[in-house]
Design brief:
Length: about 400
């Protein structure tokens, strides 16, 4: 989401008004192991086990050989709802699971809203750009948690420079920041998990002739406002968020030979977009030696109205993963967004246009899959083999609309 939200209210007042929104503690009296089992299924801590569960928008809880991490950190069905959480998982549940690291894609409210609460309660370390750390610490102060409760892990390029960035939602170029397509690594991470990072761009509406394809899959749905109406406090929480992209990052996780590419935005790869050639080359390099196994990629954000799903198609083709799971396609900001199932048919058609040697199998997820932990092991994906994603606790991959 772009930086259009109010940013100027004083921190002292905000801390007072928003303190009621900070959770007092886990809703379940679970041990950490019990909470992780409840969310990720039995066996999550086996040495070769990989689990991942879609929480909301672009937030996933994942485990690699028993090390639990988050991809992004917003835990809501829609932005202005009165209490953090979804119909399946609460913010308290995520805190109870005590993730070790938060791998942050970018700093907008729909992606990083609850990083301060999670970091303060669990000591999870926030991995990302220098600017992501600054936004999270600013929010921690705004919420009365204290900036010092947010511990950060920098992503650095090959020369040791921290990744930085501005807002590419509107402006196609940046000056004095990490170049697009730069490949880097975090300063630290869980044992056995190798992480590579690529600086990409935020999803955008661009008026390029090759991307003006119109809306695909979008159908306005205002029901969240009636099912769970916003309150003055929840509206204030949205209004006071310091909404700054601070670089958009793609993460490639490698665990025992299994590779998972995760990106919460899909900036333009039109030949007319500045920097796209460097981004495309970096994406293609991820699978240059061994094909990427799984891509968890954003397919639908506010570019829906003009550019459809074409940028997501180009990312999927450049990455060339064996299996694709979509994200950021639910009704997170009605009426600008819409339910996930509406994107199944148009995204299936987009995937079908990718050349066969780069085309992924589709594991489409909808809101009901937030009850599902997908289980696999690294050994299932060796060489050209496409492993099985076993659903635990919820429905399997969505197969059709209607």
């Amino acid at each position: 989401m772009s930086g259009r939200l109010a940013r100027t209210t004083r921190a002292a007042l905000a801390g007072l008004l928003l303190s009621i929104l900070v959770p007092a503690g886990p809703a379940h009296a679970d041990s950490t192991s019990d909470a992780r089992t409840r969310l990720l299924g039995p066996g999550w801590d086996a040495p070769d086990a990989v689990r991942f569960r879609w929480i909301s928008i672009t937030t996933w809880l994942a485990s690699f050989g028993g090390h639990v991490v988050l991809f992004d950190s917003s835990v809501v069905d829609y932005l202005a709802q009165p209490k953090p959480g979804t119909g399946f998982v609460s913010l308290d549940d995520i805190i109870a699971a005590r993730p070790e690291y938060i791998y942050q894609g970018h700093g907008h409210i729909d992606h990083m809203r609850h990083a301060p609460e999670i970091a303060a309660a669990t000591a999870a370390k926030l991995v990302g750009s220098r600017d992501h750390c600054a936004v999270a610490r600013h929010q921690a102060d705004m919420k009365g948690l204290g900036a010092g409760k947010v511990r950060c892990v920098s992503v650095r390029d090959s020369a040791g420079r921290e990744f930085t960035g501005n807002d590419t939602y509107v402006m196609p170029v940046e000056f004095g920041t990490t170049p697009f397509g730069t490949i880097g690594k975090p300063d630290e991470g869980p044992p056995g998990l190798e992480v590579t990072v690529v600086k990409i761009k935020h999803t955008q509406m661009r008026p390029y002739p090759d991307t003006l394809v119109g809306s695909e899959g979008y159908e306005a749905d205002l029901s969240p406002y009636f099912d769970s109406p916003p309150t003055p406090q929840s509206a204030l929480d949205v209004a006071l968020y310091f909404d700054r992209e601070g670089a958009s990052l793609l993460y490639l996780f490698r665990f025992g030979g299994l590779t998972i590419a995760v990106h919460d935005s899909t900036g333009s790869l039109s030949p007319l977009e500045p920097g796209q050639d460097a981004i495309r080359a970096a994406l293609q390099s991820l699978g240059a030696k061994d094909r990427v196994d799984i891509e968890i990629g954003a397919i639908a954000e506010l570019q829906n109205y003009t550019n459809g799903l074409i940028d997501a198609q180009r990312y999927a083709e450049a990455i060339g993963a064996k299996t694709f799971l979509p994200q950021h396609h639910g009704n997170w900001n009605p009426p600008a967004s819409s339910p996930a199932a509406g994107f199944y048919e148009p995204w299936s058609r987009r995937v079908a246009q990718i050349p066969a040697d780069r085309r992924p199998a589709l594991c489409f997820v909808v809101e009901a899959n937030r009850a599902t932990a997908f289980a696999t092991t690294a050994a299932d994906w060796t060489g050209d083999t496409s492993g099985r994603l076993t659903p635990l606790g919820g429905p399997d991959c969505y197969r059709r609309s209607g």
